[in-house]
Amino acid sequence: MANNKSGEILDSIKELLWKLIVKAKTDERVRDFLDDFKKVLEDNKHSAKEELSVAFARLQEKHFPNFEEGESKK
User: Fold this and answer.
1) How far apart are CA 43 and CA 40, in angstroms?
2) DSSP one-letter code for 68
3) What is the C-alpha to C-alpha distance for residues 6 and 29, in angstroms, rounded to an integer?
4) Number of structural domains, the chain?
5) Cα 72–chain centre separation
6) Which residues of 23-43 are buried (b: 16+ CB within 10 A; e: fewer)?
7) DSSP letters of 8-67?
8) What is the top-level taxon of the source organism (predicted)?
9) How far is CA 42 from CA 24, 48, 55, 70, in A?
10) Distances from the Cα of 57 to the Cαs of 6, 42, 52, 62, 70, in angstroms?
11) SS3 call for 70
12) Per residue of the chain (74 residues), what is the pLDDT tens digit?
């Protein structure tokens, strides 16, 4: 059961990443975000220098500071 749930989550992540890659072709903000996201993943690949949730929060603040207020929907 847990394996099936993991597969569903992985499929959702793949779908989201694909949408972001497509959007990055025309949106510089998304492209910059993905570049920084890749760097975070590379920096944390071989060690747990920081919690990924902290890194993701930092990325959100840098690229989408008003995300909670809906700025990203513009």
Assistant:
1) 5
2) G
3) 30
4) 1
5) 14
6) ebeeeeebeebbeebeebeee
7) HHHHHHHHHHHHHHHHHTT-HHHHHHHHHHHHHHHHTSSS-SS-HHHHHHHHHHHH-TTG
8) Bacteria
9) 19, 11, 12, 29
10) 23, 17, 8, 9, 16
11) coil
12) 556 778 888 899 899 999 999 999 999 989 999 999 899 888 777 666 667 778 888 888 898 888 666 555 54
**Which tokens hold the place of 34?**
């993905």
How many other β-carbons are positioned within 10 Å of the β-carbon of residue 63?
16
- What residue numbers bound the domain in which 22 lies? 2-73
Its pTM stands at 0.65
Q: At what angle do helices 28-43 and 52-63 cross, to 10 degrees?
A: 160
Give me the long-range contacts of 4-12 (CB less than 8 A, separation at least 24). Answer: none
For 28, the token pair is 């510089």
